[in-house]
Amino acid sequence: MRINSPGGSVFDGLAIHNALKRLDARVTVFVDGIAASIASVIAMAGDEVIMPENAMLMIHDPSGIVMGTASDMRSMAEALEKTKAGLVTAYREKSGLSDAEIEQIMANETWLTANEAVEKGFADRLEEPVKMAAYFDLSQYDNAPEQLIAKLPAQGEAHNEPNNVVDLMAIRSQVRGATLAYVNEIHEICNLAGVPDRALPFINKEMSAVAVRQALIKERADNDEALIINHRHGADLSRSTEESARPTINTQAIYAARNAQPGKGES
């Protein structure tokens, strides 16, 4: 698999990483230029990771976009912490570094040269340098190396390359937009259902909007059925209590009392 990417959706990237790890085949990853952000996590799925001497790997903390209440913000922060734990695991399994070392590398938004990536265990061996033909906008990153930016072709030049047939930035923009729309839709569904706290668990499971609606409808139906059963049980219990409280009529005693009374004309 060949990677040359500035990153993208963390959920999509983790799904790709996990799919590669499940393959019953040897996976060789070539980092042709840049493997930044979640693209570096995908690279960690390789049994062997090969980097040209002028390629780079970038590792940083996950980030997210959320709109809503303070509770929504706290929920997103919690989700990011859980997501980070998954990323740390991927880096640790490949490099053998401790969690503390990896977390420090992530917190600093660390750009690693190919040599540094090999030294730290994120890559296995080097190759001859290659010409970078794809254009990436690295302005979103805080610590992008100036020498890397200088090596990248200008945007117009990159688009004129005959082999550059995939607009990676456009794809990334589409993925980001789709992810944001998905997150907002799940939040809206849960808010309308009166269970806003359920949104992030659904998002973490990557459940579709249709599946979320079906799950909430089923839960509502189950709860309504339980309520009806409890109501009927309560009504039966109340009826039984009322009936037991009613005075009983002893017919034998009534007839005995009547027979004991003197009849008409008797003294």
UniProtKB/TrEMBL annotation:
Keywords: Hydrolase, Protease, Serine protease. InterPro entries: ClpP/crotonase-like_dom_sf, ClpP/TepA. The keyword Metal-binding does not apply. It comes from Magnetofaba australis IT-1. One of its GO terms (molecular function) is serine-type endopeptidase activity. Pfam families: CLP_protease. GO terms for biological process: protein quality control for misfolded or incompletely synthesized proteins. This is Putative protease/scaffold protein.
